[in-house]
Specification:
Structural class of chain A: alpha+beta
Oligomer: heterodimer
Structural class of chain B: alpha/beta
Shape of chain A: elongated
Largest interface: A-B, 26 and 28 residues
Number of domains of chain B: 2
Radius of gyration of chain A: 26 Å
Low-confidence stretches of chain A: 327-333
Number of strands of chain B: 11
Distance between the termini of chain A: 41 Å
CATH topology of the largest domain in chain B: D-Maltodextrin-Binding Protein, domain 2
CATH superfamily of the largest domain in chain B: Periplasmic binding protein-like II
CATH architecture of the largest domain in chain B: 3-Layer(aba) Sandwich
CATH topology of the domain at 18-160 and 283-325 in chain A: BirA Bifunctional Protein, domain 2
Strand content of chain A: 15-25%
Number of helices of chain A: 14
Distance between the termini of chain B: 39 Å
CATH class of the largest domain in chain B: Alpha Beta
Strand content of chain B: 25-35%
């Protein structure tokens, strides 16, 4: 073997091995079926596109975060998709242009971002998300927020926080700055008081604006507290109407989710993209949001159709991380997997929707204990089940529903014992 | 579900020089610092605030502090701004501590040019990103040479024309016949926070940040 051959995948990309891959796939399946139950229809989009098309949808993205290549056939620059929302916007404006709005679309796939210079260099992100195109106003925002909450519950996550922001508030303050807006926005987004001072000084802004920039950096936390302080501290920015809208949205959301709610009026990172409310879903574990989304009314018009838009996406790896960080079971039972001594037994098991594989002998099954949960042998019309990792065995006359139940409970108990 | 008010807040702190200057601030914030000063090789030190809130300090190399906080292994961290400037981290910076104050500067032999030679300037530094940004903004072509320490040696041995380094008192420069030629920025220690951790545990973390802020004001 050539020792110089780099056998691990490129930095930031990863292979997922059976357990992890199944976990991610299962999470994708569960949240997608939740999306479907709310009337969202699945679309799939290509993994790369003309760079100009995707860039049109992502004006604020750092060019260094993108992975480009020259397509050999055409000599055009292509871009590995850093985002699926832009592709959905393109579809909504073009191939679905004859469908009346609103369009409810969902997707499941991976995106690629470089994330240069950060400690966490993950580049390949598994996403599952939805877009509600052609619906504006509070009911649409609420529908998306509620669906995000319902999808978290569907995978068994019950302790999470929804953190809301609104692009118009930060933008109203920044509109008072003539030059150097980006530096100030960046300092506010990091809640960095000294850098807010320095960048305001460089930009030569008035003290009233500087005070509001400082206020934005501190306006995060429980919605009622934040809104009350915002009314006081941001008086001059004329954001009373937006604050009232946000308050109404939060009141409505409180009746529809048990998630903790919070506000961060200094969250300015998505301000090139979001035009209204935006949000992240936070939970213990990954140290980053498990889902994020918001309203982007400028996006679909860039592709030629005048439609508002709002949506969100899960980062499925972060969701999996959050689930395993809690002490609850990550998912409803995964399929129990047994190994049968012969093809006939395996067929009988599969007919009962039990995943079954045939291996040469019991020894091989035990050697692959990470892969299988139980060994089933048929002898004279009777099944014998041996749970891997445990010595006792019990016999089963027929694999009826009750038997299946017993089998799966049995295996679940064993697995739980092994993991604790 | 553990009661979140009883959970310890995890703070990543740098061992060494900055820690000494940090102790009075922690004491003013009514944190029991005895476990931090104890002669021990333990990397996790548990302590409490005077009100009984449990804290867990992670004793790290300064460069590792932002990494622990960015990944959420610690909710808060204390680190010099130079470390944050050298690599872009996705963190909140809720408080400037005003300790460990120093500057990052271009240094060299007295009178050495910092603009252009007939060839790119050779710069030895532990901070290649900060150095690159500085010279890029001036349109000066440079060749960056990474060195891990004793940077002052580079111009003396002909390894580099100039160095970019942290200057605290300037004593090392003086003793080696070098001086500050151009200031790049002032840096001091800051509190950094995980973007998610601060929000999930705000009722536990915010009072601590506030206490540190009052302590800084009083110190």
């Amino acid at each position: 073997m050539d020792k110089r051959l780099p056998l691990s995948p490129p930095g930031g990309t990863q292979d997922l091995l059976p357990r992890e891959a199944e976990h991610i796939a299962e999470l994708g399946r569960v949240v997608s079926s939740r999306f479907a139950s709310h009337g969202y229809l699945r679309v799939t989009t290509p993994p790369f596109e003309h760079a100009e098309v995707l860039e049109r949808g992502l004006p604020g993205i750092d060019p260094q975060d993108l992975l480009r290549f020259v397509e050999p056939d055409t000599g055009e620059v292509a871009l590995l998709r850093p985002d699926i929302t832009t592709q959905i916007a393109r579809i909504a404006a073009t191939r679905l242009s004859d469908r009346p709005a609103p369009l409810r679309l969902s997707y499941l796939g991976s995106v690629v971002r470089r994330r240069h210079g950060r400690a966490r260099r993950q580049r390949q992100i598994y996403q599952a998300g939805i877009e509600l195109c052609g619906a504006s106003g509070q009911p649409a925002d609420l529908e998306v927020l509620e669906l995000a909450s319902a999808a978290c519950r569907a995978v068994g996550l019950d302790d999470f926080q929804m953190d809301l922001a609104h692009a118009s508030i930060g933008n109203a303050v920044l509109a008072r700055v003539a030059h150097g807006r980006e530096d100030i926005a960046d300092a506010i987004a990091r809640k960095d008081a000294r850098d807010i001072d320095l960048s305001c000084e460089r930009a030569g802004v008035k003290s009233a604006t500087r005070d509001m920039a400082h206020a934005l950096a501190t306006l995060y936390g429980p919605p009622a507290t934040v809104l009350a302080s915002a009314r006081r501290l941001l008086k001059r920015a004329k954001v009373t109407r937006v604050l009232r809208e946000l308050e109404e949205l939060i009141e409505a959301l409180e009746t529809r989710t048990t998630a903790r709610l919070s506000l961060d009026l200094g969250e300015l990172r998505g301000r090139d993209y979001y035009t209204g409310v935006s949000f992240t879903v936070l939970a213990e574990g990954p140290g980053e949001a498990i889902a994020s989304g918001g309203r982007y009314d400028d996006l679909i018009p860039r592709f030629g159709r005048d439609l508002a838009g709002v949506g969100f996406a899960f980062d499925l790896s972060h969701l999996a991380w959050a689930l395993s960080a809690g002490d609850r079971r990550a998912l409803p039972e995964r399929d129990i997997r047994v190994v049968a001594g012969d093809e006939e037994t395996a067929r009988a098991l599969r007919a009962q929707h039990i995943a079954a594989a045939v291996v040469a002998d019991e020894g091989e099954a035990y050697a692959r204990a990470w892969d299988f949960d139980a060994v089933v042998r048929a002898r004279r019309g009777e099944f014998q089940v041996k749970v891997i990792g445990e010595d006792d065995r019990f016999s089963l006359a027929r694999l009826d529903q009750e038997t299946v139940g017993n089998l799966s409970r049995r295996v679940a108990r064993v697995r739980k014992g092994a993991s604790s | 579900m553990p009661d979140s008010s009883a959970r310890a807040t995890t703070i990543a702190i740098p061992k060494g020089r900055v820690l000494k200057q940090l102790l009075p601030i922690l004491q003013n914030a009514e944190i029991d610092t005895e476990p931090l000063t104890r002669e021990s090789r333990k990397l996790i030190r548990a302590t409490r605030t005077r009100t009984g809130a449990p804290l867990r300090f992670l004793m790290l190399k300064p460069d590792d502090v932002p990494t622990y906080v960015e990944y959420g292994a610690a909710e808060l961290g204390i680190v010099g701004r130079d470390v944050l400037l050298e690599r872009s981290y996705d963190l909140f910076v809720p408080l400037e501590l005003g300790i460990g104050r120093c500057r990052v500067a271009v240094c060299g032999r007295p009178g050495e040019k910092t603009t252009a030679l007939g060839r790119p300037l050779r710069i030895a530094t532990k901070f290649p990103e900060i150095a690159k940004r500085h010279f890029d903004q001036r349109g000066v072509p440079v060749e960056l040479i990474y060195v891990g320490g004793s940077v002052e040696l580079a111009p003396l041995t002909g390894l580099a024309d100039l160095i970019v380094d942290i200057v605290e008192t300037g004593e090392t420069l003086r003793q080696n016949g070098l001086e500050v030629l151009e200031d790049i920025c002032e840096v001091s220690a800051v509190v950094v926070g995980n973007r998610v951790g601060i929000k999930l545990a705000q009722e536990r973390v915010q009072p601590l940040i506030n206490a540190l802020a009052s302590a800084v004001a009083a110190t």
